[in-house]
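Look over this today:
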Amino acid sequence: MKPLRMLIWHVHGSYATALVRGCHTYLIPVMPDRGLNGLGRARTWDWPKSAVEVTPEEVRDAEVDLVVAQRPHELELAREWLGRRPGRDIPVLYLEHTSPEGEIAHMRHPAADRHDLLLVHVTHFNALFWDAGSTETRVVEHGIIDPGYRYTGELPRAVVVINEARRRGRLTGIDLLPLLNARAPIDLFGMDAEALGGIEDVPQTELHDEMARRRVYLHPIRWTSLGLSLLEAMHLGMPIVALATTEVVEAVPPEAGVVSNKLAVLQEALARLVDDPDEARERGVAARQAALARFGLERFLADWDEVFAEAVSR
């Protein structure tokens, strides 16, 4: 397709790092304070030159083919900054990263019943659980920049990566770690992990190496779209032990690890894989093969190009 120039805010760094690898120009709002509405280019990930920082003043005079909104208020920001109405004067799509939280049966999506935009979910689970009314929806499953096979499993321990675990509480399954830790030692990484006895502020490339030194990856999260750290662990060649929640049951095949909602099953799986490096390595190889087949970057960008083309032709 013809390369586009799209306005898109830096909201989720890991996700955006894959998305900006496409053939387009990505105009990334930046403000002096680099706050939530103007974070600019990532400073902890490697982004290509096609991700270009623009101030709100520069946006008005910029050539923009498409607006990609990820939060409800960005539609109004786009109208103010561009001087055009998203969905009427300029094509717009709404990228939804999260699963609904609250009274699920009554959760209406902010973009529900809109005929002027396209709603894109990152998992089929999210598309099923969000009530979008009559809004046209699509699903583009996650894509990961392959970090390469790095697994050594030299440390007979499990590792879990959770950002803001203390704030997010039970959603992250942080309360399950002491119970699971009784059968296998667990190392916690992520933003705010230090407050919970874990390790934080590890650069991404170093984090991948540290993850791959542990024998098994644990995914105790009760409710999330589909953790990118889980998919990264699979790419690294790590065996998986995970709760059977949200999209995990689709992403992790049986040969790649153990997926269950039974605590005793998870405890036994952690202990067995930590004690058996051969089984752990075998399952990790299967996890990597599954991740490459389903969550590769090439497929991800191709799917997005189809959605972009549809959005600008509406």
Q: What stands out?
A: Residues 5-143+297-313 form a domain with the Rossmann fold fold (CATH 3.40.50). The longest helix spans residues 277-295. The chain has twelve helices and twelve strands.
